[in-house]
Write a structure and sequence with these properties.
two-stranded antiparallel ribbon; mainly alpha; single chain; elongated; 5% strand; 3-stranded mixed beta sheet; 328 residues
Amino acid sequence: ISESPNSLNSEILETIGDAQSLVVHSSANTVDEQTSGQETPNRTIRVEDALREAGGSNTYQYRVLLMLSLQFTTLSFLCISTPFLYLPPQFVLKSDPDQLCPEELRCTDACEMITTNMKNSLSVEFGIMCHTSFYLSLQGSIFFAGGSLSVLLISALVDRYGRRKPLYFTLLLTSIFAIASSYATSIEMFMILFGVVGVFSIPFIGLCYVLLGESGDRKFGGKATGYINSCWGLAEILFVLIAYKFGDWRFLTRWIIGIPMFVSTFGFLWILNPPKYLYSRKKYNEARDAIIKIAKVNRRKVNTFSFHIDNEESVSYTHLTLPTIYSV
């Protein structure tokens, strides 16, 4: 009662101020609690960025490159083999056995065939010489013509059913028919079987570049293309040396081309359908799984992300840990 009205009013104002501060602080805490209970929105990235984060030029990509390089080596053997499989025998002049017979006189009575140290080629075993020498050019035409026509069909299958399985069965059938051709009992049988080899092998060569380009980033694609082309050229040189050393056409088609190619098909057990292909086909779950498997092989961590999809809603994915053979 003894206090003045001014001092009483100041105490009332201080009390009201403290109450307001308490209310504001409580409201701030409530907002913070509500905000902390909400998840931060996921990143939205393109499939190329997700693949780069998983390792766009790393262990998995070089595993793909190694497998395709081995397959390219056997395919290079196959494509260059025809002239060596049909290697003609040598002829000498009857009048001078030390002198080789000119090509225009080989089919005349002035020349005779050398039988010592003769390579067992198709020309020798089945008598492909003189009036039947056109079989050599006919074989090459059948081989490449069949492959050129089958490119359209096999390319459509690869676009529809993925890269991995069609390429696997294409290479598998190539190796099987190559091995079968080494057991041919006539030149006609060999030409048919070897023509089927061309039907499956030629499309595979071009589609390998597609698989390489989709399995990694642009940097890897450029290096891998140069490397695999180098393997092709070196394989051609190697086959020339092997062909002149052994020469037997059955040995070449079976043990140098067919069987190594068949063994190389098992490399597809460690190759995935590329995430870029799966994304383009709107198989977003499979693309996510492929990126996770690639990240495990490359020992990378892929955090929560969303695929950026043009003109559509983003599709959100979270990093998962899955037991898989690709982590070996």
